[in-house]
Amino acid sequence: MNPLNRLPLQSLRAVEAVARLGSLAAAAADLGVTPGAISQQVIRAEKILGLTLFERRPSGMVPTARGAPVTAQLQRGFAELSAAVARAARTDDALTVSVAPVFAARWLIWRLPRFRARHPDTRIRLDASLGLIDPTSGEADICIRNGPGGYSGVTVEKLWPQVIFPVCAPGLATRLTTHADLARVPVIRETGPNFGWQHWLGPEGHPDVTPGDGPLFSDSMLCLDAAISGEGVFLSFETLAADAIAMGRLVAPFPGRHATQNHYWLVTAADARPTRPMRAFTTWLKEEVAAAGLGRTSPLRP
């Protein structure tokens, strides 16, 4: 007899939701029922299995020692079911790549024609948003993420380090002879960046320099455009500034390029077998990164 025939699906859904969310109320909201209904389904499952799955604590529902491996496997199973449904709901067979808007707009999209020329039979759908899509949900085939790492429950490959350096309009660069000059020019800043001037000035051997004040923007792309217009110096990163430098709209007044604690990562669903389009895109992306020289840094200065 199939073990699944012992338990109604709604009981398993209730157990999984409680384990994932930690309370009857949260599970009820997730499944669109009442907390009482969730409680009854959990009790029903425990009775049929002859196993206490949760400890009822003031802080919420916590899996027991014997219940933990059961609920963990249920979570993996329902995640697989959700991914299958999401994949079936797609209207075409395009390869969905999830990236941050700044990476899509300032670097990736300008290079995609070369991918299409090489793989005309593969359609790319870019999901450019700040929300972190879990590839195990089936919403994306590949995710490119920038951060310190530590992603769990997925397959992760480190691609290249995030490298930073100051940029400015060519006219302003004439005022920057030494690092100390950064204190005497306007400096453009982004609110809430994931790195700061200390991550560049320290490796340059000038940790005591305090860059000047200047405009403040909430978005790195706005900061870069402000630098192009001559409003000040901006501490940028490679994928944001590379094309503007190549076109002569910006220059890097100092040669030093240094890595932050962050990297770019290729994230896919755990245990997923890469499809031909996924392999083609990954190979092409690595070739583009190598050709652009991304991730190369300068020696640290004493």
Automatic annotation (TrEMBL):
One of its GO terms (biological process) is DNA-templated transcription. Keywords: DNA-binding, Transcription, Transcription regulation. The keyword DNA damage does not apply. The keyword ATP-binding does not apply. GO terms for molecular function: DNA-binding transcription factor activity; sequence-specific DNA binding. InterPro entries: LysR-type_TF_proteobact-type, LysR_HTH_N, LysR_subst-bd, WH-like_DNA-bd_sf, WH_DNA-bd_sf. It comes from the Bacteria. This is LysR family transcriptional regulator. Residues 7-64 form the HTH lysR-type domain. Belongs to the LysR transcriptional regulatory family.
